[in-house]
Amino acid sequence: MKILILGIDGYLGWSLACALVGETYEIHGVDSFFRRKWVKEMNSVSAVPIASMNERQKQFKQVFNQNIHFYKGDICQYDFLCRVMREVRPDTIVHFAQCPSAPYSMISQQKSAWVQTNNLIGTLNLVYAVKEYVPDAHIIKLGTMGEYGTPNIDIPEGFFEIEYKGRKDKLPFPRQANSWYHLSKVHDSNNLQFACRNYGIRCTDIMQGVVFGATGNPDKRHAKLQTRLDFDQAFGTVINRFCCESIISHAITVYGDGTQLRSFLPLKDCMQCIELVIKNPPAAAEYRVVNQFANVYSINYLADKVAAVCKQMDMDVEIQKLNNPRKEASTHYYNPQNQNLKSLGYHPTTDFQEEIAHLIQQILPFRKNVLLHKDILRPTIKW
Question: Among 193, 197, 229, which Cα is nearest to 213's?
């Protein structure tokens, strides 16, 4: 099976390339290296040093005896994307090639317009390239649980049944996004649903929770195969940020009351879920939604969990509450469903303690990287 990973150089993209090693998959990738540029804009670095794509490809070949066929370019350039589609003819396209940061999209008018333009045009280009060259291919699009917001009712997987004035229908569940980035994902979902209905394209839209973890391997053979791990305010997901703060004896910084509820999953679960989706494509013209997460926790719970793991490792850290830079409800109902992936064989990791301990152990050797950039741990992007 030919897999084309758009955004292969990123946190999830490179992790997936390494997770899909084996005779079953022929891996192709596209990237414009925007993620490296964005993190540099934040005056930050990846806590875990990452190699160049050329170095990654060489070590991938040495370790796994398998090639990654890489194309440097921007999928917002339609001619480039069409060329890749013609040459690769992928069976499955995993679309990670978007700006994944709510804070980044809220910095300014310029950033909000860029994020929405980049994210939406890239996906529209993908729809047309698939329609033209590989109409039977399966698009796996990374969405976000943030599309739903925090409604005062249970959150289904994409659709729900409704009765209004005596009539019933199955309709898309209302979205209540809370940033320009999340809204770009909402618009993508609408566009992809239309593309499936209108062009017969098959698509799985993954509403993903917050991912944490690293792919580090103590074997030096794998040093250049590690994925990035960001900890800045725009691209560092919350548990990754907490762990990076902890290893430099910085306070674990909780935004607001810390009672906000969100859905989370370890990186290894994310990879498991995406491979299940690859192996189980939807039918032609089907737009399928899966909610991808392992469990729902409060931010306070996770901060306490990281602090407890640190204590077991003889690392004393404190938890500090900061004024929340984001407009979000501190107390709310939150009960999302995630049966679709379980029906495909997903077994969630529900106790995160071992995963957090493993993450801390992986990033401890790179403590200096975080220490040199500790000034970026205080949020300055507010909305």
Answer: 229
Mean pLDDT of the 302-322 span:
97
Which pair of structure tokens corresponds to residue 280?
Answer: 């189980």
Active site residue 268: no
Give CA–CA dist 255/243, Å, rounded: 15
The hierarchical CATH code for the domain 2-230+263-295+332-350 is 3.40.50.720
Instruction: Domain ranges for the chain, please list them.
Output: 2-230+263-295+332-350
CA–CA distance, 118 with 109 (Å, rounded to integer): 14
pLDDT mean over 245-269:
98
- pTM for this structure? 0.97
pLDDT computed for residue 215 by the predictor:
84
CA distances from 137 to 94, 218, 303 (A): 11, 37, 41
For residues 317 and 307, what is the distance between their CA atoms, to the nearest angstrom? 6
Instruction: Note if 237 is an active site residue.
Output: no
pLDDT, mean over the chain: 96
| pLDDT single digits (tens) 193-250 | 999 999 999 999 999 999 999 986 656 668 899 999 999 999 999 999 999 999 999 9
Q: Are strands 295-298 and 261-266 parallel, antiparallel or unpaired?
A: antiparallel
Q: What are phi and psi of 148, to 5 degrees?
A: -75, -25
Of the residues 104, 181, 287, 346, only one is catalytic, namely: 181
Element (H, E) at 243: helix 238-247
Query: Looking at 185, 287, 297, 346, which residue is catalytic?
Result: 185
Are 369 and 45 a contacting pair, CB within 8 Å? yes
